[in-house]
Amino acid sequence: MENAGYLLAAFTLVWALVFGYVIVLFARERGLRKEIESLKETLKERQG
After folding, report:
1. Whole-angstrom Cα distance, residue 40 to residue 48?
2. CA dist., res. 13 & res. 21, Å (int)
3. What is the rounded distance in angstroms from the CA atom of residue 27 to the CA atom of residue 34?
4. Tens digit of pLDDT for each residue in 1-48?
């Protein structure tokens, strides 16, 4: 198996990209949750 090093490098790179993408998604979700809460508060203030 002379190409095992390349296989390991590709495998590691793919998993690093997957984990990076998941982290980005979590950050975006957190931002959206904050924005939703802000909009809810604004709506409550305007209604009463």
Report:
1. 12
2. 12
3. 11
4. 789 999 999 999 999 999 999 999 999 999 999 999 999 999 999 997
Q: How far is CA 15 from CA 18, 30, 38, in A?
A: 5, 23, 35
The label of the residue with tokens 């950050």 reads: 27
| Tokens standing for residue 6 | 């390349």
Helix H or strand E segment including 3: none
Counting every residue, how long is the chain?
48
* 16 conformational bin, left if phi > 0, alpha if psi -120 to 50, beta if neither: alpha
Q: How far apart are the first and last CA of the chain?
A: 71
| CA–centroid distance for 27 within its chain | 5
